[in-house]
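As a warm-up, study this chain.
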Amino acid sequence: MRISILVFIGLLAGCASASQEEDTTANITTKEVELVTIYKELIPQVWSGHKALKITAETCAVKGVDILTSLGFKKIVKNGTYVYGNYINNRAAIKCTSVNQQTLSMLLSQAQR
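Now compare it with the structure written out below.
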């Protein structure tokens, strides 16, 4: 009797532990993705300042070119005593003018996005 119970339990345990083989291959799906660039509408900001110098307006403009070049500005244009250049999406301008035998240097900068 003990043997038949052990055989029965063995068969029962064998049937219960028999595992079904699972499919181990992964389902790989590819999806085409569209890249969208989001632009934020920004209002340009403007900075300005001025300084009285003891040099001529022409010398001020030449120094303005040197300053914009040293700061990494590109496409620098000198038109008389007016100098301007671009840095990425920003533009800076330097205007030199004589007032009462003093040179007044005005720096204007417009930052865009």
